[in-house]
Design goal:
This protein has 8 helices and 10 strands. The protein has 271 residues and is α/β, with parallel strands linked by helices. The strands form 2 sheets. Strands 1, 4, 5, 6, 7, 8, 9 and 10 form an 8-stranded parallel sheet that branches. Strands 2-3 form a two-stranded parallel ribbon. Helix 2 (54-66) runs parallel beside helix 4 (101-114). The two termini are 30 Å apart.
Amino acid sequence: MIIIVSVIAVIAVTVLASLRFPWWRKTKQGLRVLCYHKVGVPPSPCLKDLWVSTDNFRKQVKYLIDNGWKTLTFSELHEIYKNNEPLPEKAVLITFDDGYQNNYTEAYPVLKEAGAKGNIFLVWNTLGKVNEWHNPASEPWVNMCTIEQIKEMQESGVFDFGGHTLNHPHLTQIDPEAAVTEITESKKKTEEALGRELCAFAYPYGDGAYDDRVRGNVIDAGYTFDFSFREGITAWPWDREKNTIDRLYIKGGDNIWDFALHLKKGGARII
């Protein structure tokens, strides 16, 4: 009886471990896009998965460099796409949503020191302010990047930038004309400030990525790439007519094994 119980316990632990760390998934090929938000120490337990500690971020970037991953900017990916070229071996995009100031104070020095590159989707109307789309009762406001910081990061060659609307709304839940304004005006204002064209857009909350009207608005605005919030690796060559580009959501509680599974399997956990 003891042996049977022990065997059952071992099987249960193995099943749970395989759900938590799906090492058994088939290794996928294609474009890896890592999705981050904030780097540093969260001011409260609220939405702590959106915060990756500076130390963990440094370890993750080191893992990429040590294992031969090539970090690309949006502009570099655009050249590859425009010229119908294959991806470099082990190509990966490091992306940040929203444009928090900790991307400048914490992530920027890490990437610069490692010789890696990143990309930030900017919420235009909050630059130099705080993340006003959040309810401060449930998540404390934090500072956003300033235009001066964004320009510095662009000039360094370490960071490239994309659009993420004016105010971070749910694009399918606002007036259709307002959605067009959110998409087009944020692109126009960012391009004027940075003196260059934006080729990449990310849907706030992932909302609108699979809505024909909203996705049409993004394409009509002149964006080449549009990024969802769905977990996965995107096949390359990318079929722009059929699919948005998926991403790999890096959470605050992910360890380095989770990080490796994201890159290899397109996901780190089932439960």
